[in-house]
Amino acid sequence: MDTIIITDLEAIGHVGVKEDERSTPQVLLINLRAISDFSKAIKSDDVNDTNNYATISKRIKTIVRETTYHLLESLSDHIMRVLFKEFNLEEITLRIEKPHRVANIQLVGIEMTRKSIDYS
Question: Does domain 2-119 have CATH number 3.40.50.720?
Answer without folding.
Answer: no
